[in-house]
């Protein structure tokens, strides 16, 4: 188990990296404000479990599973060194690390494949599980209903985490969410939980409990993590602070944990500063290495690599 | 070019229907490979739509014959995910008319996974479904051509019991998503000698059903028996028609077709589905645009369904291709 300081470090990685990627690619989807859901939901998974994170800058999830930072940055820059060889949307993750791939531009498709990962684990009689997160907008795709219903009927080892930031691109949740997402769990006959998505320790505890239940054959759980998107849908999408919803307070999960760790005496201001500096250096090095790499070209177009 | 005859009847072969041959292939592979399992509707004690899984539940039980909610997108999506993580699922989508409900997984997801992950993911999944006119008349719409358009999908369209078994075994063992289209008019049709053993028919290889020097007819699925009848009728008039059964649309055996038309210099294409934007157009364009040039003596003709949603009842026969329409198209190329 990683300690609380490590949780802080992973969230700083997500924030620092995300902010940098937004300057490199205006089509990148900013994670700022939502780091605790990514980190808390996936940090305790075993390497042999499957991870299907929400598309909103999931790189920290891939890094926690062992991905190389510079190769992820290379994906954002369309370089051949990306795990995707420059072929897919840049937020696609390294499959060999048990990440459910992002290959469609269409939301909800990974709810299906993540459910299938859990189906494989059940068929193989293993105790592996899958955690699948998605946004509150995606929660209205048919895939949400069809797959959670199927997973409930077959008691599959999967945890669904709805990362509810209160809006979908530009639309406010009032236009598409008539009731809390977690309340739908009752309709499927599975546990539904709501958690403060800004509190990484709380997310970790609730998801961890659901993961252990799934591992023991208890079937799926639906968790709604209330969080806060502090920027536009993509890096170039400028929204004023007044126009965006306030899904939850406080808006900064890193600040929340920082204050808590200082109060507990688990970390000093100096150590926090050191974490920020080291992470900034790591990101800078990764960006430099990725920028120096070659762009994806004819060798990666791969007309002979469409079929396995 | 594949002119190989189907496996010769021998000890251990029985006369099976097309559907029995498919079920036998699935049972053989489920015995051989514990990672193969089935997802679908009514595939339990009921035995599957049109007896499409008869006996499988009794032999393999509910842990490998999974009766699913009526949720095609989840069925296909979950099968694709299970394939990513080490299984070889077969999804039974009762009828092809239900495929549109799973289109996101079939089009945006399954075919993209290997390529978009830089070649690291494999998706050994089979989606089998039933199309066209059949003994019960229901669910006749045939959307097979849509799927041949998409890079990363294999599309299999068997027309005989022997091919149905060998192509199903090939489909399950393939490391890519394979759509397996069963022609309902053939499902409970004429029996044929089928080897009881394990054999694979290669996906992407056509079969020369009948040699002929005057004209080439390309067919797949339910159009094969129509084409064979048309060839017999034309033979009585002294016209020797070569019949090529494509057996799969993606990949498709362009070499065999081009080679045949280079000899006959006339081409007719017949299929049960619609002509407009259909796969017959791809065949015609490939032959017409081939370099080096294929010398044609007549315009390429296509025979398919009338451009209407396939109707029910008495109107059905008026909409679908017939032996007579194929013969008429061939005569037009001979006159042309």
Architecture per CATH nomenclature, i.e. the level-2 architecture of chain A: 3-Layer(aba) Sandwich
Instruction: Report the principal-axis shape of chain A.
Output: globular
Reported CATH architecture of the largest domain in chain B: 3-Layer(aba) Sandwich
Which structural class do you get from the secondary structure elements of chain B? alpha/beta
Report low-confidence residues of chain B grouped into runs of 5 or more. none
DSSP E strands of chain A, number = 7
Shape of chain B: globular
Task: Describe this protein's structure.
- The complex is a heterodimer of chains A (308) and B (336).
- Chain A has 308 residues and is of the alpha/beta class.
- Chain A is 43% helix and 10% strand.
- Chain A has helices spanning 4-24, 35-42, 59-64, 69-76, 109-123, 142-154, 185-188, 200-215, 253-264, 269-292, 298-301; strands spanning 50-52, 130-135, 158-164, 167-168, 171-172, 192-196, 221-226.
- Chain B has two domains: 14-195, Rossmann fold (3-Layer(aba) Sandwich), CATH 3.40.50.970; 207-335, 3-Layer(aba) Sandwich (Rossmann fold), CATH 3.40.50.920.
- In chain B, 35% of the residues lie in helices and 20% in strands.
- In chain B, the strands form three sheets. Chain B has a seven-stranded mixed beta sheet with strand order 3-2-4-5-7-6-12, with helices on both faces. Chain B has a five-stranded mixed beta sheet with strand order 9-11-10-13-14, with helices on both faces. In chain B, strands 1-8 form a two-stranded antiparallel ribbon.
- In chain B, strand 6 (154-156), helix 7 (161-173) and strand 7 (178-183) form a beta-alpha-beta unit.
- Chain B is globular.
- In chain B, 56% of the residues are buried.
- The model of chain B has no long low-confidence stretch (mean pLDDT 96).
């Amino acid at each position: 188990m990683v300690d609380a300081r490590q949780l802080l470090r992973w969230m700083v990685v997500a924030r620092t990296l995300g902010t940098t990627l937004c300057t490199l690619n205006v089509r990148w989807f900013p994670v700022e404000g939502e780091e605790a859901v990514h980190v808390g939901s996936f940090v305790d998974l075993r390497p042999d479990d499957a991870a299907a994170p929400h598309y909103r800058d999931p790189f920290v999830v891939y890094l926690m599973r062992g991905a190389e930072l510079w190769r992820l940055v290379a994906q954002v820059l369309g370089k051949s060194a990306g795990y995707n060889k420059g072929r897919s949307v840049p937020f696609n993750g390294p499959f060999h690390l048990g990440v459910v791939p992002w290959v469609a531009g269409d939301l909800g498709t990974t709810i299906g494949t993540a459910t299938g990962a859990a189906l494989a684990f059940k068929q193989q009689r293993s105790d592996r599980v899958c955690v699948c997160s998605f946004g509150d907008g995606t929660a209205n795709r048919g895939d949400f209903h069809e797959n959670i219903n199927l997973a409930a009927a077959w008691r599959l080892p999967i945890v669904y985490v709805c990362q509810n930031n209160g809006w979908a691109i530009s639309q406010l949740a009032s236009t598409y969410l008539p009731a809390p997402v977690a309340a739908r769990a009752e309709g499927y006959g599975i546990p539904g939980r709501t958690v403060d998505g800004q509190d990484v320790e709380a997310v970790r505890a609730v998801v961890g409990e659901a993961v252990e239940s799934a591992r023991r054959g208890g079937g799926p759980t639906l968790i709604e993590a209330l969080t806060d998107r502090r920027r536009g849908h993509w890096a170039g999408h400028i929204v004023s602070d007044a126009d965006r919803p306030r899904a939850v307070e406080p808006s900064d999960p890193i600040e929340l944990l920082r204050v808590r760790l200082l109060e507990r005496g688990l970390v000093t201001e100096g150590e926090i500063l050191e974490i920020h500096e080291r992470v900034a250096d790591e990101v800078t090095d990764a960006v430099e290495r990725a920028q120096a790499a070659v762009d994806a070209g004819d060798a990666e177009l791969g007309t002979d690599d469409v079929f396995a | 070019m594949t002119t190989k005859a189907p496996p010769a009847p021998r000890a251990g072969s029985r006369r099976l229907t097309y559907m029995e041959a498919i079920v036998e292939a699935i049972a053989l592979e489920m015995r051989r490979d514990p990672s193969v399992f089935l997802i679908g509707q009514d595939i339990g004690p009921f035995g599957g739509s049109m007896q499409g899984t008869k006996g499988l539940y009794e032999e393999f039980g509910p842990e490998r014959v999974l009766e699913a909610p009526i949720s095609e997108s989840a069925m296909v999506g979950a099968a694709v995910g299970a394939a990513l993580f080490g299984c070889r699922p077969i999804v039974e989508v009762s009828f092809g008319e239900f495929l549109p409900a799973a289109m996101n997984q079939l089009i945006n997801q399954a075919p993209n996974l290997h390529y978009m992950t830089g070649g690291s993911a494999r998706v050994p999944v089979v989606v089998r479904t039933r199309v066209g006119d059949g003994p019960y008349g229901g669910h006749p719409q045939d959307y097979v051509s849509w799927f041949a358009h998409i890079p990363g999908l294999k599309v299999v369209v068997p027309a005989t019991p022997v091919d149905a078994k060998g192509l199903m075994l090939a489909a399950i063992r393939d490391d890519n998503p394979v759509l397996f289209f069963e022609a309902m008019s053939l499902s409970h049709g004429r029996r044929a000698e089928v080897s009881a053993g394990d054999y694979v028919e290669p996906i992407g290889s056509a079969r020369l059903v009948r040699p002929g020097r005057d004209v080439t007819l390309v067919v797949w699925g339910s159009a094969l028996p129509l084409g064979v009848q048309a060839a017999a009728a034309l033979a009585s008039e002294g016209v020797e028609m070569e019949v090529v059964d494509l057996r799969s649309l993606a990949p498709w055996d362009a070499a065999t077709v081009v080679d045949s038309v280079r000899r006959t210099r006339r081409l007719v294409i017949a299929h049960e589905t619609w002509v407009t934007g259909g796969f017959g157009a791809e065949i015609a364009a490939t032959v017409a645009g081939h370099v080096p040039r294929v010398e044609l003596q007549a315009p390429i003709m296509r025979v398919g369904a009338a451009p209407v949603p396939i109707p029910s009842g008495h109107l059905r026969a008026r909409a679908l291709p017939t032996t007579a329409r194929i013969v008429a198209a061939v005569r037009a190329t001979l006159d042309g």
